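Section 5: illustrative case.
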């Protein structure tokens, strides 16, 4: 896997959370950054632990969740 793809890969957040994101069409970390934390928390299978891991991974790459309401 090229470095750019690896950088944009979803972190290990658990199978149920990964399936929930995939059902919503989210397969890359850059796609996570286009959604708000509140929006993602509405997906069945995405809980506080997964959101925390996603937030950390986003921050490590200089990204963040979309601001709610924007």
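Designed sequence:
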């Amino acid at each position: 896997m090229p470095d750019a793809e690896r950088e944009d890969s979803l972190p290990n957040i658990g199978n149920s959370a990964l399936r929930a994101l995939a059902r919503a069409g989210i397969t890359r970390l850059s796609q996570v950054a286009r959604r708000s934390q509140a929006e993602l928390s509405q997906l069945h299978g995405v809980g506080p632990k997964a959101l925390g891991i996603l937030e950390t991974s986003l921050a490590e790459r200089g990204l963040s969740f979309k601001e709610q309401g924007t």
